[in-house]
Amino acid sequence: MITYPFEYKRASSVAEAVSMLAEGGKALSGGHSLIPSMKLRLNMPDALVDVGRIPELKGISMDGDELVIGAGSTHADIADSQLVKEKLSLFAEGAAHIGDPAVRSRGTIGGSLAHADPSADWPALVLAANATIVVTGPNGERSIPSTDFFTGLFSTALNDDELITKIRVPVSAGSKSTYQKFAQPASRYALVGCAIVKQADGQVSVAFSGVSDAPFRDTDVEKNLNSGQEAGPVGKGQSIMSDNFASEKYRVHLASVYLQRALEAVA
Amino acid sequence: MQVEINVNGKARKAEVEDRTLLVYFLRDTLQLTGTHVGCDTSSCGACTVHLDGVAVKSCTLLAAQADGCSVTTIEGMAKDGEMHPLQEGFRECHGLQCGYCTPGMIMTAADLLKRTPKPSETEIRFALEGNICRCTGYHNIVKAIQWAAENTAAPMLADSHLWTNDVVVEKVVETE
Amino acid sequence: MSNRYIGESIKRREDKRFITGKGRYTDDIVLPGMLHAHFVRSPYAHARVVGIDLEEAKAMPGVIAIYTGDDVAAINGVPCGWQVNFRNGETMREPKHPMLIPTGSTAKHVGDAVAVVIAETKDSAIDAAELVMVEWEELPAVAAPADAILPDAPKVHEQFPDNKAFDWTFGNPIEEVDAAMEKAAHITELEFINQRVVPNAMEPRAYIGSYDETSDKYTLYTSTQNPHLIRLLMCAFVLGIPEHKVRVVGPDVGGGFGSKIYHYTEEALVTWASKQIGQPVKWTSDRSEAFLTDAHGRDHATKAEMGFDADGNIVGLRIKTVANMGAYLSTFAPAVPTYLHGTLLQGLYTTPKINIDMTCVFTHTVAVDAYRGAGRPEATYLLERLMDLAALEMGRDPAELRFQNFIPPFDGVEQPGYQTQVALQYDSGNYEAVLKRGLEMLGYENFRAEQAEAAKTNKILGVGFSTYVEACGIAPSAVVGALGARAGLFESAQVRVQPTGKVSVFTGSHSHGQGHETTFVQVVADKLGIPMDDVDLVHGDSDTIAFGMGTYGSRSLAVGGSAIVKSIDKILEKGAKIAAHKLECAEGDLEYAEGKWTVKGTDKSIGFGDVALTAYVPHVYPAGLEPGLDFSSFYDPANFTYPFGCHIAVVEVDKETGKVTLKRMIAVDDVGNVINPMIVDGQIHGGLAQGIGQALFEGTIYDENGQLTNGSYMDYCMPRADDLPMFETDRQVTPCPHNPLGVKGAGEAGAIGSTPAVVNAVIDALWSAGHKPKDILMPLTSERVWEAMN
Ligand SMILES: Cc1cc2nc3c(=O)[nH]c(=O)nc-3n(C[C@H](O)[C@H](O)[C@H](O)COP(=O)(O)OP(=O)(O)OC[C@H]3O[C@@H](n4cnc5c(N)ncnc54)[C@H](O)[C@@H]3O)c2cc1C
Ligand code: FES
Ligand code: FES
Fold first, then answer.
1. CA distance C494 to C52
2. Is domain C297-474+639-789 in CATH 3.30.365.10, yes or no?
């Protein structure tokens, strides 16, 4: 297994990475989505800009009421972070269920969000947590609400020459959260992943991965629950996926079972 | 491009293609063939090595990404002829049959024991999620890891320098 | 003789190299000037090669040669090693697998090779292979065996419009079985698919061909289970080169499970190409290629009926199966659904009338051949599913129903072997005992109470039983010959005592994880009464080992080990002559123990080492006796061996999602005498995991175009550490009466018994909660189990 030839460039700062990306190519973070797809020759960028050693992309800290996670933080960094466990256990819990230990040690939150695999875990987590994705491009920085970020199957609001630099997540006292995942048995990606954040006042936000061809906030379910009713059907209006492991019908069923389990967990 | 990687305590310098994967750098350039390839999809863990002390899949990493880092392979796990407790454990508990998955299993388990010196059976099985063995049914692999954990003091498992050659002991420069 | 080693869990001698990274698998070998091959393969299940344009590929840097089917047309295709004719006498249809598909011909499965690029590096071979432009004409394809026999099914081989390779019937005449079934008070009927699974040895196949012009000799390094068999097939049937000009070496082999028994086209091609180019040529399979080109296992579509009288005694068994052979007949393929399957349908029961009707068909898929268990898992699955289902249907206890129908104990010595209705004569068996022990380990009484409690919740419980008997140590030659084998199934061994009394043992068996370097040496050291350190095992090289039939069918110790014992007997016989001469006594006055010959009733003795030295420095020596102490033997067993056992699974089923969790896996196996319990347990564990894998996780999925849609570990679900519990194993020993070690074979047992136990457990769980499915398609994915409840 070998990728097509490409040029490897290593960036040492966000600014350098952005200027390198302006010449074409793709960012290389943990490489745990990009390299497998390049080995299978499903993906053939001319150049890779390694952003894995940029200090600005690392680090997890609080900024006011927001938890700020560097895009280059690995799943393991987040799962093991004391700060995340205290302030936003949802992210620690979710990160701990991504892939296997070696994947968690290399794969990054920024890479996962940019890749936007419909079965990845981070998308549901950032959606439910109302996170904001901060990106830098040739024209400077902009912030994209997670609800605007995922635009379809493997596609996002990110431009080719932009780099995700951090994820800002509002943290509020008294909230409860959970991530319930039914793993695809072979790949261990989410066949259904349901993330819920319940505020102190009882209002919930509900997001799903693995169910539809793009991760989504289930606004119908949220409306029902937030007005004191039963959740109702999951994934209304979504284009539900169907594959060897779950038909459309079963996926929707699983999603409602996992929604119920998530609701019990935050009850 | 040229990379310099400290492999099992030796600084190795070599000219590689930009696209060279770490596993092929180890196997083909350095002829360290203890690191195996069992899949194309980063799923099996046969290629697991330590990068700066952390278990990674060397088939999913460019040699270029490891430039300037330390890599420990299975060949570096026995120091001065004394085997790592996990190597002993695998032999003691018949944790291997064909041996193909074994180097990856040992490297993954070493990372686990460093973080969790006394893991439960469930923790061990969870940690092995990314390593496939077709021969053993995992039963004796779990036991081998438990054996190593029981027979080694935690601080010793945590300090990889005690067991591996990942300190630079001599400077060997190779250029291809 | 001594009793130091046999029966002890001696730690494996081969481990040191594997745990230090010094194992040497084929892909680890680098020869001077070695080139790399990469194959261009068909992306279609069925397509005609209209034309191939090599120009661009040839211009790529590093490319040395590119061959297409037209270049290798003179090479014979890969043959089949077993012949099973149609029941009407028509000869088995045996289209050969061409080395590469020539222009104008059709590729018959995805992955069928059309060209091979040979280049200086693997990377340049891959890059260039992508520029080989093949013009394809896509044709309709058929992948499922049951579809292949439909009247308008696409044809795999033009000349065989019904897609049949052969058909076969076995057992009692069908009229007798029909008559028995007519009188049955209850008939349990089950239609099911024993799905196709992929062996998935973790080391992908790898070959290096190397030709030496000066000696006109070829060397093939190959990840194989049987080097000599590969040499024979490749020399005599494919390349047509003299056998003495070919050396086949099997270095360390990273698992096989059947898939590395067979001779594959790539093996012959790298060997041939190394002569054309004058440099060694290596090919190593990718995992993706392995999914498409390694021989697969199982793939039966079956209708089975078992009849019972009013008391629950089995009165008849009637089977109709369509088995998938794939596009070509692989080396042992015809034997698997027939003589390794039909002959096992007696199971452990006294069933008086049995008939099987088998149709073996071609499809546009890669060949199917023996996979761990080979035919016996399919037979066991069929019988044991029927037994548990019959118990549920008749309201009987599944364990009781088995006790009632078991063949009573027989040791094969005092009591004769058991003659089945399907040709075989079992050597020895004690079936009740293993089930009793299994029930004890389970705590059956308590379990049913627990199950009743659980049935009221969302996490229901089920228990599944499986008691099996299988046939191992595949042999004897005369019998297999009569059944269509084109090879003998004996084994060879040479025991060479060096002048200093150290011993080299050469065996034709070839370990690919089974630990022969330890077990075989335990046997030799004990038989000779010398330390294990004085004995080494040599295997896997056709130049150093006289001959070998290899390692599969759990035959290595039973057949290969017995050959070693025969040689040791000869060593001791000759040694006694030398000892008697030295000690100036009659041979009959000597006894051999603990490594020395002693004159009975005296303290006069001579050690093994002294006798060995005398044999090579024959100054004071018996007149007329040849010098040297080195004997070869061939052992052809009298019968198969028949291990048996009881596997019990306990599962929990999540009623809301259908997810199955295997809570307990109990295995009580009787594999005859045990040389190394640690290794035997390991074999059982591995087999269990594969059997459980088939029940719950594994299985190919082909789409309507014959494309494998789950040909990677992201989609083909391999059992992982967190899918399995600790196994609960126990053993019973009923020695094999007809081989010198009393061993039966342990390599496949785990995979044979476990699959139906797990599926039965899920069915049992569902019945406990009021759902009454007869069958759920394997693998039992959450969705399928959920469907069965909704
Ligand atoms: C065996 C295996 C199992 C896995 N299991 C799971 C699982 O269970 N759940 C799950 O969610 N994921 C899983 N993954 C995927 C894993 O989490 C990846 O690490 C993640 O999807 C991508 O992160 P990365 O840092 O590796 O990104 P890369 O592979 O480096 O990049 C992915 C994409 O993002 C782009 N990119 C990377 N960083 C940035 C950035 N800062 N700004 C803009 N674009 C960027 C790249 O150009 C590329 O297009 C698995 C992967 C493997 C190999
Ligand atoms: S070879 Fe690296 S994970 Fe399989
Ligand atoms: S020991 Fe063979 S794959 Fe694990």
1. 50
2. yes
